[in-house]
Specification:
Length: about 240
């Protein structure tokens, strides 16, 4: 049975989550068929679970035009490109024992302090190698980061940040300061080595994408503030031309 056949079976059943999944698949297919500009929002712990592969497939096939994500999804995506181990654990474990062992828990995903330090170092090294003096948007910075992942990591094919850079899919973060990427930039800034991220540029760039689109649609994985950032652009009276 192919995926399409499975979706068709779900559609015929029409019940519970199977029916809703089939409905979502058909809606997404309609977005692609009508050549709409598709914005994808991400929140929650998506990439630590290994779901980056799904995002890469969407990017490679041209099924998404821009992304608005939490910073955490981008940060944890880098572990895979750097060949750093991410382990399946159990949410019922004693967190005190994990802390004593130098292990962090994302629900039932385990990562080590060493892994985090190595990821932090990569971000800091990439930032310090670039002599950018003007403020940049989050998408500009993530493009720069993705290019570095493509050239300087052992497994860039596992990173959706890298593939977004390769295929020129801009990746915005609606609240850059609340993730480890943002904190690493802040750490460098107090040493006069950082890059200034201007979120006003995010508003202007996402608005430009929406304004120049004849048809625009959004696909939301979870909701929270990434959805609100996208809707602020798509429903603003200056950009709402048939959403």
């Amino acid at each position: 049975m192919k995926v399409k056949d499975l979706v068709d079976e779900y559609s015929r059943s029409g019940a519970f989550n199977a029916g809703r999944l089939a409905e979502a698949c058909k809606l997404y297919a309609h977005m692609i068929e009508e050549d709409a500009t598709v914005g994808l929002t991400l929140s929650g712990a998506m990439t630590p679970t290994g779901m980056g592969g799904i995002l890469i497939a969407l990017i490679e096939n041209g099924f998404v035009d821009f992304i608005i994500s939490t910073g955490a999804n981008l940060y944890h995506d880098l572990h895979f490109a750097l060949d750093l181990p991410v382990h399946q654990g159990d949410f019922r474990v004693d967190d005190t024992k994990l802390y004593e062992a130098g292990i962090e828990r994302i629900y039932d995903i385990f990562i080590t302090d060493e892994l985090l330090f190595k990821t932090d170092k990569f971000i800091q090294d990439v930032t310090q190698k670039n002599s950018i003096t003007q403020p940049v948007s989050t998408a500009d910075f993530h493009y720069m980061l993705g290019k570095a992942v493509l050239s300087d990591t052992p497994s860039p094919q596992l990173s959706f940040v890298a593939q977004a850079a390769r295929y020129d899919v801009p990746v915005f973060v609606s609240s850059p300061g609340d993730s480890s990427i943002g904190m690493n930039l802040s750490y460098l800034k107090i040493q006069d080595k950082g890059i200034t991220v201007d979120t006003d540029l995010d508003v202007l760039q996402t608005t430009a994408i929406v304004f120049s689109s004849e048809k625009k649609r959004c696909c939301k994985y979870r909701r929270w503030f990434t959805k609100k950032f996208l809707h602020a652009d798509t429903t603003h009276p200056c950009t709402n031309t048939g959403y």
